Amino acid sequence: MGAGVPHRMRPNIILLVGEDTGVHHRCYGDEYAVTPNIDRLAAGGCRYTNAFSTAPVSAPARAAIVTGRYAWSIGAHHMRSTLTAAPPTFTQALREAGYHVRWPGKTDFNFEPPSGFADSDRDWLDDLRDGMLPSGGFFLYRNLGITHESTMWGTPIDGEGMVRERLERLDELRDEERHRPEGATVPAYLPDTAAVREDIARYHDALTLQDRDVGAVMDALESSPCADETIIIYLSDHGRGLPREKRWCYDAGVHVPLIVSGKACDRRAAVDDRLVSWVDIAPTILALAGISGGAPMDGMPFLTAPGAAADSTREVAVSGRDRMDEAFDRVRTARDTRYRYIRNYFPELPYVQRISYMERQQSMSELRRLHAAGRLTEAQAQWMCERKPSEELYDTAADPEMVENRIDDPRLASERDRLRDALDAELERSGDLGSLPERELVRRGTVVDRLREYRERIAPLPDEYRLGVFAGTVLEMPEARRTDVGR
Fold it and tell me: Global pTM?
């Protein structure tokens, strides 16, 4: 492992990771948002407009962030699976090069953090403010959990989720910072009802609380003796926790914020429209630290020396989903700066199989209820259909909410074919273990057998809500596998 630049010259790095946070900040153009600190962060650095998570759910996305590998390349692609052996992480490389690494709180990688993952899990905010962190370079992590999908529940459920913390912290917000449901913007694929608007308003209240947490880090850094040598990276694991957003591979599920800022980053009030994938985060952090070599990664650095854009650019950002708790599916997608191509390997499975956690959301209940009553619009009803199309293609410039599938539009045939080929090439290059049944991964010793645990969570929907030939939830890869879709 190359030590890179001398200790006195390399930057400190702070990584802030929001949960279930889409591009809903004022600096990203959302006028409903109250996010002054994150906007201030963007004004002092670079805001990336085409940053994409590799998965629309937390553990596979976080596995990619910390390893620089696609979750499906290492076997961590099923949500709530567990690798039998931990892969290398970028934090180990930082420590080997002399960085002090603090990682308090959430890991959630679908594997236990390996030996040597961090120096400490102790909170660092006061030590940062007081200049009490070790010299020679430090890396600090903070999870911003207040925006997790459970913050949108109306009341706490079984003691779980972030709703209790949101309710306890609401007094931090001034009246003008509170979000009125009537002012919310409801996407075309969700019903415009009071319950849906309440969910969106709760999310934005939580996002303003997240913004306060980011502001506390910024204030601590500005008060510290380390401000001139420190870079802040702000991002989210995946999109907002609403139906057809979290857990799905549309832009609302994987198009996420990314801001790189700090006095050590000389890109001020910049906007960068290059494609960035979450497999690029780990190699970028190592490049900023001047560290070369080490474990192979699927990503590439988008920054090298502090503030300097890397020469290499990616042609597509690839994402995917597999089993989500007790519901199996397999989806892969490729996105360039305008078009998104989606491949559904199991079109016979409906989009909205029952996932107990997802069913707690008011918005999901509204979709179920109104679909059963035949009262959804065409844009809303297409996600509630009994079968998925084998392929989907969207022009995000003309249709940012992705409700018009143009896979058969002859005018976009060249875009479709190009993205098909790019997806195939990236999956072949990286190796996609999602093509194998989970039981085979268990047999090989790649993952722990957790299928029984999740089989016990399967419960039928009411008769009027059931969809598709299975009329329920599929936990494992169906026998009739579709591995040639789109070819």
Answer: 0.95
